[in-house]
Amino acid sequence: MHKLLLRQLRRHFGSADVPAELRGFVDAVNQAYEEAQGDRVLLERAMDLTSQEMLERYRDLQAQVGERERVEQALRHSEEYFRSLTENASDVVSVLEADGTVRYHSPAIERILGYSPDLLAGTRAFAGAHPDDRQAVEAAFGEVRRTPGAVRSVTYRNRHAREGWRVLESTATNLLHAPAVAGIVINSRDVTERSVAEVALRESEIRFRTVAESLGEGLLITDLDDVIQYANPRVEEIYGWRPEELVGRKGLEVLIPPDDIAPFRERMARRARGVAERYEMRALRKDGTTGWVEIHGTPFRNAAGDIVGTLGAITDITERKRVQEQLAHGALHDALTGLPNRALFLNRLEHALERIRRGRGIPFGVLFLDVDRFKLVNDSLGHGPGDELLRQIGARLVQALRPGDTVSRFGGDEFTVMLERVATAVDATHVAERLLAALAVPFSIGGREVYASASIGIALCDGGDAHPEELLRNADAALGRAKAHGRGRCEVFDRQMHAAAMRRLQMETDLRRAVANGELRLEYQPVVSLEGGGIVGFEALARWEHPRHGTIEPADFIPVAEETGLIEGIGRWVLDEACRVLASWQAAVPRDPPLTMAVNVSARQFVQPDLVQQVECSIRRHGVPAHSVRLEITESVLIDKPDAAAETLVALRGLGLKLHLDDFGTGYSSLAFLERFPIDAVKIDRSFVHGMESEPRRARFVAGIAAFARSLGVGVVAEGVDAPAQPALLRERGCQLAQGYLFSRPLPPEQAEALLLGEPAWTLD
C-alpha cells in the first residue's frame, strides 16, 4: 500500500521526488489502509481522494516555499545593500546594545578616528569622548534608550587613535523594538573642520561686534533693498532709534528726510554698482528733528565677491556744521550788528551785475551811509554805548527798507545799502530820505536819548559794465559831497563827481610814481618871535613838483596819500629830511636856544607802532637836539584812540621833543585836549587870525584861547599872519610866535637858508 501511494504521487509529480513534507502524509494514509482491513473499494476511493488532497496540499506548500525563498532572497539583497551602504558611507554607522555595548561599527570609523571596527566591537560606546563632553553625550544616549523610537543628536569631541581630538556630530535612534535590528543605531560624522570654521566665525562675529560696538561712529549694514541688517549702539545716539528697532526696517523710511530721499536713492544705485563714496547729508531723528551726518558708504560683498548691500560708517557732524555755519556767517556778517559785511555786500553786488550782463537783471542803486559825528558819541558816552548805537542804527535801516534790499555794515560807522528795482535817481533819493527820517527819531542808549544823523551818497547802476568797487567809489564820492554840503543829507553821484573821482584816481597813480621817482620836496616857512621879530625856527612843508601840472599843494595830495597809505613813507622821508636840513642850519647859525624845526605828523603816520623809533632814529642820525624838533599833530589824531595817543605822546615827550597841536580852534573839543594831553603849544588856525584887526569877535576869540593856554603853561603860535596890524594884536593877546605871508612864503631850502643867514628882523609895531 505504501508503494502504491508513492507511485500515485509520482504520477502527479512526474519524475521529481515526492517532497519530504508529503512523505509523512503517505505514512498516515498507509496507517489508515491497515485500519481499513483490506476493503479494496474503500481503499481505492481513499487513494483517489488522498492523492487529490495531497496534490492541493503540495501546491500550497510549494507556494509557501516559493514565498519563503523570495523573502530570504530579499533579505539577502537588503543585507547586501545595507552592508554596501555602511561600508562605503563617509559617515560612521554604529549599532549598540541596550546597555551601550558596541555591536557594530562601519569601516568609516577607522578613517575618522583611526580605530579598526573589529577592535571596538564589544567595547563601551562613547569611551573615547572628551571628559568635558562625556556627561552630555551619556545623558543624550540615556534619553534615547528610555524612549522607543526616540531620536537625539549631540556634538562632542572624541579621541583619535593618533591625532588628538576630532569633533563628531552623532544622531542616535532607538530601534530596540525593531526585530530586524533590536538595537540603537547611531550615525556619526566628522565635523571638525566645520566646528573650527564655526568657532572662527563666532570669534569673527565677536570681534566684529566688539569693534562695531566700540566705534565712535554709527554703523549700518543694509541689503540692496535698503533693509537694515545691522545697527551698532552708536546709531541710537545719532538717530534716537535703538538698534533692534531699526533692524528689518528700510533706512529710507525712518532715517532720511523726505526731501533727501531722491538723491539718497541715486547714491544707493551707485553703491550697487560698486562705487564707494563719502558725503554729507541731513539725518532724520526719531523725534522728528534733523541733524547732519557724514557717511562713508561702501559696497558690502559676500564671500563670492557679489555686492549684496551697503556698509555705512556714520559720523554725527551736526555740531561741526553748526560751527561751520557760524564761521561762514561770521566771515560774511558783521559781528556787532549781524548785518552782511563788506565781503558779502560786494558779492551780492557782483551777482546783481552778472544778472544784468545776462539780460535777466534790473537796474539797482547803491547807498553809502556815514553816521555824522559818531566819534562824539564814543568820546562822550564810551565805546559800549557807541556799539549799541550802531546796532540800533543797523536794525532801524533794515526796518525802513524793503525785504529784497540789502543792508551792510561796511566798517566803523559806515553802512551800505543795495536797492533792488530802483531805476531813477528820484526813486533812490526817496529811499535815502526815508532812511534819514528813520534815523532822525532819537535812540534809547543806556537809559538816555541819543540823536544821530547820517549823510548818504547814492550811485545808480543800469548796465553790466560796472564793477562793485566802482559803484561803491561813486557812492562814496557822492557821500563826500553830502558831507561837504552840511551833513544830514543825501547826494546822487553825477558825471562831475565821476570826473573828480577819475582825477583823484589819476592823482593816486601819479603820486605813487612821484614817491618812487623823488618828485616830492620840502619848503620851509619861518616862525617869527612876536617879541623881537627874529626867526626862531621853520616849519617843513611838503611840496609836489608834478612833471606836467607843476606844483601841487599839500591840501590836494596829502588826503590821497592818507587814503592810499603812501603817507607813511612820505612822513618818514619828511621827518628825516627836515632833521638833516635842521642839523645843517644849526651848524651854520649856532644859537642858544638852537633853531627849531616843526614837522607835521599825519593821523595815519601817528598810529604806526614804530613812530617813536622813527623819530629817535632821525634825531640821532643827524645829531640835532631833540628839544629843537616840534612835531605838529591835529586833534583828529587824539579822537580815535585817546588812550593809545596819550601813551605815544608821553613816549615822544620822553625823547625831549616838543608837541604842538595844529589847526587849534577848528575842533569841538580842542580845549579839553590841552588838559588831557602833554601839549607844549597850540597853533591858532588861520581862519581866526585872518581879519582879526577888523573883526573884534575874532580878536576876542584869539585872546580867550591864548589866556586859556597860558593858564595851562602852553605856548601859542599864530598861523596865517598876512596883515601888518596883526602881529601887534596877537602879541597883546598873548601870542608868542607867528608865521605867515607877512613874514615869508614857504621857501626852498637854499632860499630859506639865505633868509636865515641874512638875519632878518621884522618891525612888529
Descriptive account of the structure:
The protein is α+β, with helices and mostly antiparallel strands and 765 residues long. The chain has five domains: 2-65, no CATH class; 89-196, PAS domain (Beta-Lactamase, 2-Layer Sandwich); 215-322, PAS domain (Beta-Lactamase), CATH 3.30.450.20; 333-493, Alpha-Beta Plaits (2-Layer Sandwich); 508-757, TIM Barrel (Alpha-Beta Barrel). It is built from 29 helices and 26 strands. Strand 3 (151-159) and strand 4 form a beta hairpin.
Topology:
Layout: H1 2-13, H2 20-35, H3 40-88, E1 92-96, E2 102-105, H4 108-113, H5 117-120, H6 131-146, E3 151-159, E4 165-175, E5 183-190, H7 192-214, E6 218-223, E7 228-231, H8 234-239, H9 243-246, H10 251-254, H11 261-272, E8 277-284, E9 290-301, E10 307-316, H12 318-332, H13 342-357, E11 364-371, H14 374-381, H15 383-400, E12 406-411, E13 414-419, H16 425-440, E14 443-445, E15 448-450, E16 454-461, H17 468-484, E17 490-492, H18 495-517, E18 520-529, E19 535-546, E20 550-552, H19 554-564, H20 566-588, E21 596-600, H21 603-606, H22 611-622, E22 629-633, H23 635-640, H24 642-654, E23 658-664, H25 670-676, E24 681-684, H26 686-689, H27 696-711, E25 715-718, H28 726-732, E26 737-738, H29 749-757
Parallel strand pairs: 16-17, 19-21, 21-22, 22-23, 23-24, 24-25, 25-26
Antiparallel strand pairs: 1-2, 1-5, 3-4, 4-5, 6-7, 6-10, 8-9, 9-10, 11-13, 11-16, 12-13, 14-15, 18-19, 18-26, 19-20
Helix pairs in contact: 1-3, 2-3, 14-15, 15-16, 18-19, 19-20, 20-22
